[in-house]
Amino acid sequence: MTQDRKALRVQGATKAYETGSGQVHALQDVDLTVEQGEFISVVGPSGCGKTTLLWSIAGLHQLSSGEISLGPDKIRKPHHAIGMMFQLANLLPWRTIQQNIEFPFEIRRKTPDRKKIAALLERVGLGGFGAKMPKELSGGMQQRASIVRALASDPEVLLMDEPFGALDAFTRDEMNLLMEEIWEETRKTIMLITHSIQEAVFLSNKVYVMSARPGRMHRVFEVPFERPRNLKLMETKAFFDLVNEIKAEIQHQPSSASAAVAAE
Ligand SMILES: Nc1ncnc2c1ncn2[C@@H]1O[C@H](COP(=O)(O)OP(=O)(O)OP(=O)(O)O)[C@@H](O)[C@H]1O
């Protein structure tokens, strides 16, 4: 590995929210390194701090202590090389798909790369849909548009917060396959948060399991399956066994409520 490759590093990330009824310890001393070009997922019991961790990496939340960096840059606010996708496509309803994709460029006062956007729209199966309004597209198509919006500025890191959780199972499988292909083509550094262990195993090189609140990195599973992967992989025994092993690891975590009582 060469020196200039940009790893995403989280060191000692600790986050306590101040609430009316006291502090909520969401993260405790989380360490994580995602090498450039890796695709990793983070899973864990509900409320263990996955979203808090991802939003902190996006520069949208301040940590109470600890540090996040991308290569030499410390992340304390949104960084131009870090893109994000959310559970809902978050397209502005009064703008066309093309205008939505160009919106982040407007905010940064940059000229959009229309050739790249056209190629990306084509790549995700939305060629010719740029002039449509979001309501004219299905949920899956809207998420395809949000993939284009996230990739149009060519980020080095893509953060995905349960991006396919609102889609039906069939569309979700299609989107998983599309993300696998896009990762193969672009080799972006990708960090996915998901409640679907199948999705995590299908897409990732590594799956990190967090412990219940306050969230810590509990265990990492290497995913051994060759790439490129296709949906048939999900029907194999080896896939099923790894998914079940990870599920069992999560189920052995105490519930968020009892962990919180123990920690606070
Ligand atoms: N803005 C906030 N103010 C106070 N507490 C918060 C805030 N955001 C999150 N929390 C609390 O911090 C803990 C971690 O929340 P977070 O959303 O990061 O977990 P999560 O693992 O993503 O949850 P889920 O899997 O259910 O989406 C939870 O107990 C949550 O209630």
From TrEMBL:
Q: Name one GO molecular function term.
A: ATP hydrolysis activity
Q: Where is the ABC transporter domain?
A: 8-237
Keyword presence, ATP-binding: yes
The signal sequence is none
Q: Which residues form a coiled coil?
A: none
Query: Would the keyword Transmembrane turn up in this protein's UniProt record?
Result: no
One Pfam match, given by its short name, reads: ABC_tran
UniProt-listed InterPro entries: AAA+_ATPase, ABC_transporter-like_ATP-bd, ABC_transporter-like_CS, ABC_transporter_ATP-bind, P-loop_NTPase
The record ties this protein, via PANTHER family, to: ALIPHATIC SULFONATES IMPORT ATP-BINDING PROTEIN SSUB, TAURINE IMPORT ATP-BINDING PROTEIN-RELATED
The protein here is known as: ABC transporter ATP-binding protein
